[in-house]
Specification:
3 helices; about 55% helix; elongated; single chain; about 80 residues; mainly alpha
């Protein structure tokens, strides 16, 4: 079966927020700019290029916290 593709010169399948508003990182809702906290979340936390690093940080903190919980709860069973 042949693979289908978009027609030549059809353009992107989606438009990013910066392409629509003309300003990278700022979402324009009826002429109102988003807050600084919202821009920080969009640019640093939910940005696709930074998401793998953020997931690694959350995973490492979770494993560390689970280790502390396990040792405090079941530490007496570990030591003979």
């Amino acid at each position: 079966m042949a693979r289908r593709s978009a027609a030549p010169n059809s353009g992107p399948a989606y438009y990013s927020r910066s392409a629509v508003t003309g300003r990278p990182g700022i979402q324009d809702l009826d002429g109102v700019e988003t807050s600084t906290f919202s821009r920080f979340m969009d640019e640093e936390i939910w940005a696709p290029e930074k998401l793998p690093g953020n997931i690694a940080i959350v995973t490492s903190i979770s494993v560390f916290a689970a280790g502390i919980f396990f040792v405090r709860k079941f530490g007496d069973l570990i030591i003979p």
